[in-house]
Amino acid sequence: MSEAKLPERVATAHPLRHVAIIMDGNGRWARARGLSRLAGHRAGVERVREVLDACREHGIDIVTLFAFSSENWQRPVEEVHGLMALFAAYLRRERNDLVRRGVSLKVVGGRSRFSPRLCRLIDRVEQATAAGGTRLNLAVDYGGRWDIVQAARRIAEQVCAGGLAPEDIDETVLERHLCLADVPAPDLCIRTAGEQRISNFLLWQFAYTEFCFADCHWPDFDGDAFRAAVAEYRGRQRRFGRSLPAEPSRCSGSG
Ligand code: IPE
Ligand code: IPE
Ligand code: MG
Fold first, then answer.
1. Percent of the chain whose pLDDT exceeds 70
2. What is the pLDDT of residues 75-128, one digit of tens each?
3. Engineering a disulfide at 40: which of 26, 51, 59, 180 sits with its beta carbon 3.0 to 4.6 angstroms away?
4. Mind giving me the DSSP string for the chain?
């Protein structure tokens, strides 16, 4: 059911525009089947299309997937090469399908460690899909700390150039320089495979994000698991630091 078709009370109490997913557990999924870690990553990539379907079903128009962290470079070189090759293959293979589905792809993270060829491929797919109304952010070589540091550096450059006074730096200014500056913060973050940590994902944006943890490994995460996470989210009460709204008093009024 799309957000627009939800009962109005649910849709306004629980707007769900942006979902972030920490796609964890590919390695354990593969090990349990006697397969290589790369086979697990390959199975994980196959799940992305289903996530996009589920987002459409729930009227979610922004999804941010954590695919490769700043720290994942420390993995064995064969695994890193394999993951980069899978990333490039995904971009080549899915480009037309993303256009057809109206999905605009944005790759967020540092690109200095990518090959020039991969950088050109990313640019091409981003340009080809730019008109899409649903946003898919793929976080690759991404770290929340890295994001805040690169924002701070760009702000410092503006200050040095005389374009900004230090006393004018506030949360809005910093936010404007983060990778996801053009979208609202995630309403919901789902992490698969049982781990309950952020692992350096969207540190700034997660200030008031709701978390759901799924026990299954990422390659087993399907539409039903997504639906269960959304249902859990719908049952939450988001307060953003405010106190509970007062119950309407039964004794008020004259009648
Ligand atoms: C997530 O699966 C994918 C990446 C981090 C690239 P993992 O590779 O972390 O799988 P586990 O956690 O070892 O099972
Ligand atoms: C988080 O998973 C990063 C991605 C899913 C891309 P990790 O497997 O790298 O995180 P830790 O090491 O369990 O915290
Ligand atoms: Mg992991």
1. 91
2. 999 999 999 999 999 999 999 999 999 999 999 999 999 999 999 999 999 999
3. 26
4. --GGGS-HHHHHHS---EEEEE---HHHHHHHTT--HHHHHHHHHTHHHHHHHHHHHTT--EEEEEEEEGGGGGS-HHHHHHHHHHHHHHHHHHHHHHHHHTEEEEEES--TTS-HHHHHHHHHHHHHHTT-SEEEEEEEEE-HHHHHHHHHHHHHHHHHTTSS-GGG--HHHHHHTSTTTTSPPPSEEEE-TT--S-TTSSTTGGGG-EEEE-SS-GGG--HHHHHHHHHHHHT----TTPPPPPPPPTT-S--
Any idea what the CATH number is for the domain that residue 42 is in? Answer: 3.40.1180.10
Q: Is residue 179 part of a domain?
A: no
The reply to whether 248 falls in a domain is no
Pocket of ligand 1 contains residue 28 by CB under 6 Å: yes
Annotated catalytic residue: which of 61, 72, 137, 147?
72
The response to whether residue 141 sits with its C-beta less than 6 Å from ligand 1 reads no
Distance 25 CA to ligand 2 centre (A): 8
The predicted model scores a pTM of 0.93
pLDDT at position 221 is: 98
Residue among 24, 46, 218 to mutate when testing ligand 1 (max atoms within 8 A of CB):
24
Total of domains in the chain? 1
Task: Give the pLDDT confidence of 34-70 residue by residue, as tens digits.
Answer: 999 999 999 999 999 999 999 999 999 999 999 999 9
Per the domain annotation, does 254 fall within a domain?
A: no
Q: What is the residue with the minimal CA distance to atom 1 of ligand 1? A: 24
Q: Is residue 161 part of a domain?
A: no
Q: Given pLDDT bands bounded at 50, 70 and 90, which one contains residue 14?
A: confident
